[in-house]
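Can you make up a polypeptide sequence alongside its tokenized fold?
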Amino acid sequence: MNFFKNQKCNFDKPIVTMGTFDGVHLGHQQILRAVKSEATKNNAKSIVISYFHHPLETIHKKTFPYILTERNQKEALMKKFGIDCVLYLDFNKKMANMNAVDFFKKVIIEKIGAQKIIVGYDTHFGKYREGNFELLQKYMATSNFEVKKVLPFKIDNTTISSSLIRDFVREGDMQKSAKFLGRNYSIQGTVVAGHRIGRTLGFPTTNIKPADENKLIPAIGVYICKIRVNGEKYFGITNIGYAPTLKKMQTKEIETHILNFIGDLYHQTVEVEFLQKLRDEQSFQNENELIKQIKKDVKFTEDFFKL
């Protein structure tokens, strides 16, 4: 069975961790630092075993919007903490039915040849999530490897988790999500053609299609943002919603007005960082009322960034 489709890391007895690592939040970062530290100490390489998407997609045969970090962002963040190689499991139905002991023996020991495994306090693997730190400890003596558990990372006595951060994003609380992620929440995507209504109001917008259809979109509302395009950073306002005053869309749109920007971004890749929610999306009586509110939003954003 090919566990890692078209991927390999030829390292002898590496230091290994495993998990979804969605968000690469402060708790994940603590694990990555521990893995890198052990690898450096033992003159070994560091490996993360992860997934393209969450295993629940395979198990339940459906997709849903939940991802905090796109694949390229997740991998870049891991490499930033010194990880030598990220291996993505080919998580198919056969692997989903593999029990924890078989997964441990065939993947971790035989395929990877781990010298040491470092896991989070809540690690689970194998069918029915039956594999855990205790199971790894049980096989430690007979399999010639070591296992170490990293304790939970807490802020204000609250344990950091991807699930908790998803709740913050769904609520539009970008300050709390940033506090637990260790950076601003962002969406990567491509600029696509919109209805071009914004420019008739004097506030042209870029319509962004997320790069990953499973990306978790913040709550409906208006946000203060930073925008990154081709290595350049801009400031702006992003509206997530249905544009009830002028368009009354049936599906959510992500529209960003970039302050003091002139140019064409169609088909370009952009990243929008969400700093703070300004207000809920509103339905105005007419176009003039909408323009007045947008001007207030722009002024608030300019003051926020001290422009």
Remarks:
- The chain has a mean pLDDT of 89.
